[in-house]
Amino acid sequence: MPKKLGTCPKALEARERRAEKKKEEKVRKEKELEEQYWKDDDKLVNRKLHRRDEREDKRQEQLDKKRELRKLYEEELEGAKAKSSIKPEPSKLTQAQIASAREKLAAEQAHLSKKKLIEEQELQPNVNRVEVEGEEARTVEEAIGILNVGDAPSELDRHPERRIKAAYNAFEAKMMPIVRAENPGLRNSQLKQLIFKMFQTAPENPKNQAHGSYNMS
């Protein structure tokens, strides 16, 4: 039976060095490949950016040429008009009168537009706030809450506040198309607040029904 040969330390060390060297070489190659990949990608991006800049420069150059041609055309047109407008003195006075009339017309139109805007603002109600029984509310819900507070129960209707919201919803559904047609420029919240103002004195309001019944008794 042959002797089992022992492992030579020097040979083992040499193998380990070779394995480490191969490992380092592999890592180095992978790193080089990665760097080359990103380098090529940067070149591609730079080429795209360069082409885009070139296209933008060409486009701007074309726009500048068009502007220049248009400017020359307008200058030539103005020159031709100036030459053809040389007429006796009465014609110049007529042109001045026409210009003055145009200015007056523009001023009158501006004045009428401003006056109309002011009138519309004065006629438009301040629907951002609703006053209910001496208190201000900014929303319909707050106003209904004010109506609910302080209601004294009576034999005729101990809890009219329980019916106020339902009655208002029905009233709003009925009146919304009418109020919107009459005030097309108002927002939906403003329309609702206008309807609520109407609801305060409407017979559909349970509070008005309760007060009316009480007064009749």
UniProtKB/TrEMBL annotation:
Domain Coiled-coil: 126-209
Extent of Basic and acidic residues compositional bias: 12-32
Pfam family, one: Ccdc124
Stated name of the protein: Coiled-coil domain-containing protein
Region (Disordered): 1-32, 77-100
UniProt keyword terms in alphabetical order: Coiled coil
Example of a GO cellular component annotation carried by this entry: midbody
Naturally occurring in which organism (per UniProt): Calicophoron daubneyi (Rumen fluke)
Family note: Belongs to the CCDC124 family.
Record InterPro entries: Ccdc124/Oxs1 (IPR010422), Ccdc124/Oxs1_C (IPR054414)
GO BP term (any one): transcription by RNA polymerase II
Subcellular localization(s) per the UniProt record: Midbody
Organism superkingdom: Eukaryota
Molecular function via GO: transcription coactivator activity
